[in-house]
Amino acid sequence: MAKPKAKVKKPAKPSPSGVKAKQVIDPAVETFVGIVNNLTYKNGENAPATPLRNLTFWVGAGFSKAWNPKFPTSAELFRLGGREADKIADPGALSRTFGVDMFEGLDFDRVRALVYQLDMQARYPDVRSRYVDDQNIKAIRSALAAALVAKFVELTGMQPFDRNAAKFRIKDATPEQREIVAFFNDLEHRDDGSQDTVEGLRTHFISTNYDNVIETILDNIIGEDDSTFIYGYRGVTPVEIEGMAPAKVMHDHWLVRQLIKINGGFEILRHGDGFVFNYENRSPSQIAANPPVVMLPSREQDYSDSYFRAVFPKAVRLLRETTVLVIVGYSLPDDDALMRFILRQFAEEPEDGREKILFYIDPSDSATKRKRLDMVFPLREGRYPTVVSFNGKFNDFVSQYLRAQAKIAKARKRRLNRHLSS
């Protein structure tokens, strides 16, 4: 495949009087539209071959905020008041043992410090503090997980899950949510698996979030009688989903997409040596008894858990097999050194990125995004992979994409009508 060429355009001039600024299509969006249309499966007897290509979205907290502004950032989620912190463990004991002051509650930095201390105590039992053992380490972690789930529900509410249909419903969708669904619905129909081999462009997801936003979107772009559990591979095959055996134990390549939650998720629970997906509203005591598999922030992340060892290789392979990578709402923080290492697998060397293109959607300016990416990829003065920045919110990118595709469809219809009338 020839390397996609990004269109280079001068910055858009201010709109003249009477012309709405929202009608302007950013060059980054135009480039994305062109690549998507170019890699889409072409129907017809004389249509050119379109080999299967992967379009992968790497999403962070900003993606969920685009869906619902109530969804928290890390700093907002990991902020617990004194009353909530008291339920985790005695503040005085934690302060004396771990040096973490919890009398006024926890913020992001204190959670990082606490989790780091727990990790060290678990990893090096020979040098544990006097009154620390496996059981109270587990109890503190479980109580912390329960407090975080409760905080998330307090901030956002729980996304309604229809157990009978095995899918998420959207109640009273906002205009922004309707556009996001329309955006991914458009991308959903860019490949074709009806022939001997799959062709076109297929969308996948790698998420650093704990929530169920992506499942909700996917459930609302497929048939009413379908569930994303049938078409989605999660990197691990659950023993149960909502108390039932999974509809698919082994997926078919011609109709499957991947959704890998690289930091775990609130619905992922342990079940013996495996996992179950449970989307129901559980009480704090139920959560503490069986906490979700989530990676909590720490000064030194510990990804030795079996879940992370299972999904990391899947994420790495997906990135290596991805042609177009879209980073949305993820700031590449310094604490996420391992996440940056995994992300680098998209193009470990410039030669790996010759036919690849990376879109970075974030409100920060291009220079800031470029600086972040320089910590991850060997860009070497703008060489491969091709990097295209969109300096705005994901909602704006989505709106412009839909307008651009509508404009193209309208022009195509006009040409067809002229042809038929001639």
Describe the structure.
Pfam families: SIR2_2. This is SIR2 family protein. Residues 1-20 are annotated as: Disordered. The structure is a single chain. Strands 1, 4, 5, 6, 8, 11, 12 and 13 form an 8-stranded mixed beta sheet that branches. A hairpin with a 4-residue loop joins β2 and β3 (167-168). By secondary structure, this protein is an alpha/beta fold. Helices cover 39% and strands 14% of the residues. The two termini are 36 Å apart. The longest helix is centred in the last third of the chain and has 28 residues, at 394-421. The protein is globular. It has 15 helices and 13 strands.
Task: Indicate the topology.
Layout: H1 27-39, E1 53-59, H2 61-67, H3 74-77, H4 82-86, H5 91-98, H6 108-123, H7 134-156, E2 161-162, E3 167-168, H8 175-188, E4 191-192, E5 199-207, H9 213-219, H10 228-231, E6 232-233, E7 240-241, E8 257-261, E9 268-271, E10 274-277, H11 284-289, H12 306-320, E11 322-328, H13 337-343, E12 357-362, H14 366-374, E13 386-391, H15 394-421
Parallel strand pairs: 1-5, 1-11, 5-8, 6-8, 7-10, 11-12, 12-13
Antiparallel strand pairs: 2-3, 4-5, 9-10
Helix pairs in contact: 1-15, 8-15
Low-confidence stretches: 1-21
The H-and-E topology, N to C, reads as HEHHHHHHEEHEEHHEEEEEHHEHEHEH
> Which fold name corresponds to the CATH topology of the largest domain?
Rossmann fold
Report, as a whole number of angstroms, the end-to-end distance.
36 Å
Helix share of residues?
25-40%
Rg over C-alpha atoms, rounded to the nearest angstrom: 23 Å
**Domain unit count:** 2
Major β-sheet annotation? 8 strands, mixed
- Write down how many β-strands occur, each being a DSSP E stretch of 2 or more residues: 13
